[in-house]
Write a structure and sequence with these properties.
18 helices; 2 domains; eleven-stranded mixed sheet; alpha/beta; 19 strands; four-stranded antiparallel sheet; Gyrase A, domain 2; Alkaline Phosphatase, subunit A
Length: 536
């Protein structure tokens, strides 16, 4: 009996000890701060060409002392920065996360809308009403907040609203982006803190305007640059005023494609870092920043102008400042930094054409006008096409049903006609795309990955290599049409070992890699896998 009581006593003690241990907070060591940096237009080839011109403590520090992943591709079709960033932040694809591009055709409203349009929100400093409500999945920043409710903080600072909101996800305390018409930071009421105090302070105390007054010329002697200026100035080499309008009829300025924009992002990012005390507690915070290496009026994404070189060299100094301040405030050894780019064409259609390589710009208006005429000749004088956007053709389903036409046959007629147009590679019925399986690396699978049932048209077209779609304002609707579209990816800080990672990965692998380092759940639609070489 005494033996039995003794055993029961021991078992009780062991149970209590196990419950006590399980109730303790996680002892897994992890970063106190995560800094995500997206650079619009970033290309590894550009970095390689300018390597000897960079400061040791900017790009060189991140790439040389961190992990350089040189074989990372987007497994989606290029449709704008919103879908590219959403793919990185959710570890998923538009098929699941809903972000098919910067814009989409709303069949119900019969109009092209921004993917972040939300009439239920209010704008702060702007009439735009925007939110992340069409982002159907959680992001890595959301998961940080969910894992540490009331303790972790998330902020995003970007050039444009699409980038700011996709970086900020659903749970950021505040996001901010540049108003390139009225020259100030603006945001949406969707986020808890609205416009952060520090962004508002920059608007009020003249700091924002101070950046606007800085004209842009070469940082070094113009004769030391690899290329000539795109717009040569005899006195300065080249010269730009950030307040210059994009075009005769445009209210927007060139601000977002000048070094002033990068300076503004750095300034606000560092103010948030310091005044919100990011990275000072054991629970991780996240700061997300977007920069650019675009230049005003550029006709090619290649490194073929002094302006392009200069904006890289100036961004290098912004990166240096950012790293120095993070090291002082938090410590680089306590900070995980990751940097990536969007999908960009290595060579523009213009550049390819000048070198006798087949290429071109596809504008859908002429094709759709001829398609409408063709359908009227066959089926009668009706409006058979409801709308079009981003390689998606939307048919008038109500009219087709009313006329008792076979919808599948109608789709086939449209698809066959579209194949006759210059620049078109294929025309596919949407049902064939949505139900597609098979090889995850095929072009057809990338098309399927890039569609979502809420936004997909009835016919989806693809373009030949070298071709890019543009809208009526000659803005690209997705900038890359490469079969495989790569992006630079770097991890730095924390316990990241200096290395070059040559294995093939996809951008959907970035979020689960960060989740593993932070010991938090992966985003809820994540399909990626952690990058095994990033193993601190």
């Amino acid at each position: 009996m005494r033996f039995l009581l003794h055993n029961i006593f021991l078992i009780s003690i062991l149970l209590l000890l196990s419950l006590h241990v399980s109730a303790q907070p996680s002892t897994v060591e992890r970063p106190r701060l995560v800094v995500g940096i997206m650079v619009d237009g970033l290309q590894q080839k550009h970095i390689d060409l300018l390597w000897n011109y960079f400061d040791p403590n900017g790009f060189k520090k991140i790439i040389g002392q961190g992990a350089n992943c040189r074989n990372v591709s987007y497994n989606i079709v290029s449709a704008g920065n919103a879908s590219d960033i959403a793919t990185v932040m959710t570890g998923s694809i538009p098929y699941y996360n809903g972000i098919v591009g910067n814009n989409y055709y709303n069949r119900t409203e019969d109009e092209i809308q921004s993917i972040i349009q939300d009439d239920d929100q209010i704008g702060i400093g702007t009439k735009q009403t925007l939110s992340a409500h069409n982002l159907l999945a959680s992001t890595i920043s959301d998961e940080i907040i969910l894992a540490n409710p009331g303790k972790s903080k998330s902020y995003a600072v970007a050039l444009s609203p699409e980038e700011a909101i996709m970086l900020g996800g659903h749970t950021a305390k505040s996001v901010a982006w540049i108003d390139d018409v009225n020259y100030k930071w603006i945001t949406t009421g969707y986020y808890t803190d609205g416009l952060s105090h520090w962004a508002d302070e920059m608007n009020v105390n003249g700091v924002f305007q101070n950046y606007m007054s800085r004209t842009w010329g070469p940082i070094y002697n113009i004769n030391t640059y690899l290329s000539k200026p795109n717009r040569e100035d005899k006195k300065w080499g080249f010269f730009y005023d950030p307040t210059t309008k994009k075009g005769k009829h445009s209210l927007a300025s060139i601000l977002r494609t000048t070094p002033a924009a990068n300076g503004l992002v750095t300034e606000l990012g560092l103010k948030i870092l310091e005044n919100e005390h990011l990275g000072t507690e054991s629970q991780p915070d996240i700061l997300l920043l977007q920069f650019t290496v675009r230049t005003p009026f550029e006709k090619t994404t290649s490194l073929q102008s002094a302006e392009k070189e200069d904006i890289y060299l100036r961004l290098d100094k912004e990166i240096q400042t950012l790293l120095q301040k993070i090291d002082v405030k938090v410590g680089l050894d306590r900070t995980l930094i990751y940097m990536f780019g969007n999908q960009t064409q290595i060579h523009s259609p213009t550049e390819l054409g000048e070198n006798k390589i087949p290429a071109g710009y596809f504008n859908a208006d002429r094709s759709l006008a001829l398609l409408s005429t063709y359908l009227m000749a066959i089926y009668g004088q009706e409006k058979w096409i409801s709308g079009y956007y981003g390689k998606n053709i939307f048919l008038n389903k109500v009219k087709i049903e009313e006329k008792k036409l076979n919808f599948t046959d109608f789709q086939k007629t449209v698809a066959e006609f579209m194949l006759d147009f210059e620049g078109i590679q294929s025309a596919i019925q949407s049902s064939q795309v949505l139900n597609l399986g098979g090889n995850s690396n095929s072009e057809m699978t990338r098309i399927r990955n890039s569609t979502n049932k809420n936004c997909v048209g009835d016919i989806i077209i693809t373009l030949l290599p070298g071709w890019i779609e543009v809208d009526n304002k000659n803005n690209p609707v997705g900038e890359s049409n490469s079969i495989v579209s790569y992006t630079p990816l770097y991890f730095f800080g924390w316990k990241i070992k200096p290395q070059t990672v040559s294995a093939s990965y996809q951008t959907t692998d970035i979020a689960p890699t960060i989740s593993r380092i932070l010991d938090i759940p992966m985003p809820n639609a994540c399909i990626g896998k952690p990058i095994i070489e990033i193993n601190p």
